[in-house]
TrEMBL record:
Domain Aminoglycoside phosphotransferase residue range list: 19-128
Cross-referenced Pfam families: APH (PF01636)
Lineage: Bacteria, Bacillati, Actinomycetota, Actinomycetes, Kitasatosporales
SUPFAM superfamilies: Protein kinase-like (PK-like)
Source taxon at top rank: Bacteria
Name this polypeptide is given: Aminoglycoside phosphotransferase domain-containing protein
Length: 192
């Protein structure tokens, strides 16, 4: 058997500090800036989620009001983030805690199949909130918009008839409530 993967011996799990997480993500972004490879833009993933919301055959259990909320949020925030004009680069695409591996040489990000181009704030929106406090040069307005866009995308996937995440529908319902609260808290009008 041939593999191109590198094996990293497990280490005793420890809590990852927000500063260490931010430092590892910044190092990853610095390295990715040097790569010139074709990759989709983050907006392609947003569009895939928007098309899923619009497809009643694939999302039959999604109530009309929730369908409208998700569709409007995805469309509006995609536009808002595009207008804010953050510098775009190659990103991990989903650097959430489940994609961080603790090794004896420090933190490593795994599962790079969702790489895309976009502002670093899109990646930061997948990380715990405290991480962005340690990441230099963050556009806070852009990050706030991404912190609503990313959960809207993830919530949409939970309503896909073919979703296989355990408890996915329960999470989708819970996340719809969180999405409404985040929109209210941030005073965003997604219908404009």
């Amino acid at each position: 058997m041939v593999t191109l993967w590198t094996y990293y011996a497990p280490v005793t799990p420890r809590e990852v500090s927000p500063a260490d997480y931010a430092n590892a993500l910044e190092r990853l972004h610095t390295g990715m800036r040097k790569l010139d490879v074709p990759a989709p833009r983050f907006t392609d993933r947003v569009e895939q989620a928007r098309q899923l919301v619009a497809d009643r055959d694939r999302t039959p259990a999604l109530a009309d009001a929730d369908r409208e909320l998700l569709g409007d949020t995805l469309r509006s925030l995609r536009r808002v983030i595009g207008e804010r004009g953050g510098a775009e680069q190659l990103l991990h695409g989903e650097p959430h805690p489940g994609n961080v591996l603790t090794t004896k040489n420090g933190l490593l990000f795994i599962d790079l199949e969702t790489c895309c181009r976009g502002p670093v704030e899109f990646d930061l929106a997948h990380a715990p909130e405290e991480v962005s406090e340690h990441y230099p040069g963050v556009n806070q307005d852009l990050l706030r918009a991404c912190r609503i866009l990313v959960p809207a995308m993830i919530t949409t996937w939970r309503w896909d008839r073919g979703d296989q995440l355990p408890n996915g529908r329960r999470l989708g319902t819970e996340w719809l409530g969180r999405l409404r609260a985040a929109l209210d808290r941030n005073g965003l009008d997604i219908h404009g």
